[in-house]
Design brief:
Layout: H1 14-65, H2 72-77, H3 85-90, E1 91-100, E2 103-113, E3 124-128, E4 133-136
Antiparallel strand pairs: 1-2, 2-3, 3-4
């Protein structure tokens, strides 16, 4: 009969549960922005890799055909550059021609994200070949 009246409560009090919930919320508030920043920098790295490929291929194109390619499709058609289809679904490349070191070549390359990009459409990463700088819109590092 005594075992029914003992004060052996099993379980957690409301205060203990609230303390655990608050600790988890604080950890999430710290971790989520770090994770989102990591994801954004990974997207910028993908764009920078594509820009590097386009720039190198345009120099090969120019040396082989004596002109600057007008768009990506022209380089693909002449088997100079073939980018990953997944990257092409996520990014739309465009460039402007200018004078770099006294020679006509691609001066600015801009990649614009499409609707297939998980981060959203319309974000841009731009590379200026004259200054050698990337100018990210939202995908920055």
């Amino acid at each position: 009969m005594l075992k029914y009246f003992r004060n052996d409560r099993k379980g957690f009090t409301l205060v203990e549960v609230l303390v655990v919930v608050i600790i988890i919320a604080v950890l999430a508030a710290i971790a989520v922005p770090i994770y989102l920043s990591y994801v954004e920098s990974a997207r910028a790295a993908e764009a920078q890799e594509m820009i590097g490929s386009i720039l190198a291929a345009s120099k090969v194109f120019q040396s082989r055909f004596g002109q600057i390619p007008s768009n990506y499709e022209e380089m693909e058609r002449r088997n100079i550059l073939r980018l990953d289809p997944l990257s092409l679904n996520r990014w739309t490349p465009a460039w402007q021609v200018g004078s770099v070191d006294g020679q006509q070549q691609i001066a600015v390359i801009t990649l614009t994200s499409t609707g297939e990009m998980p981060g959203g459409a319309g974000k841009q990463v731009t590379y200026n070949a004259i200054t050698g700088e990337y100018t990210p819109d939202s995908y920055g590092q």
